[in-house]
Amino acid sequence: MAENEKAKAKTEQAKGKVKKTVGQAVGNERLTAEGKAEQSKGDARQAKEKTKDVFKH
Fold first, then answer.
1. CA dist., res. 27 & res. 33, Å (int)
2. Burial state string for 28-56 with b = 16 or more CB within 10 A and e = fewer than 16
3. CA pair distance 34, 47, nearest whole angstrom
4. pLDDT digit string (tens) for 37-54?
5. Is the separation of the CB atoms in 16 and 37 below 8 Å?
6. How far is 16 from 14, CA to CA, in rounded Å?
7. Which of 33, 35, 37, 54 has most Cβ atoms within 10 angstroms of its Cβ?
8. Res 3: pLDDT
C-alpha cells in the first residue's frame, strides 16, 4: 500500500505542476492556484509516506 501512496503523491505533484505552469502561461489565476494546491497536496502525501518509512525501519 505504501508504494501506491507514493505513486499517488508523485502523480499529484506532476499534475499540479502542469496545471500551475499552464495557468501561468495563459494568465489563468484560478488554474494556477489549483495547480499549486494539488502540488502541495502531493508534497504533503509524500512527506507523510517518508515519515512512515523512517518509523518502519
1. 11
2. eeebbebbbebbebbeebbeebeeeeeee
3. 20
4. 999 999 999 999 889 888
5. yes
6. 5
7. 35
8. 82
Cell readout for 21 is 505552469
Name residue, grid cell 508504494.
Answer: 3
Q: What is the pLDDT of residue 12?
A: 95
Return d(Cα 49, Cα 43) in angstroms, integer.
Answer: 10
Neighbours of 21 (CB within 10 A): 13
> How far is 57 from 53, CA to CA, in rounded Å?
7
Residue carrying the nine cell digits 518509512: 53
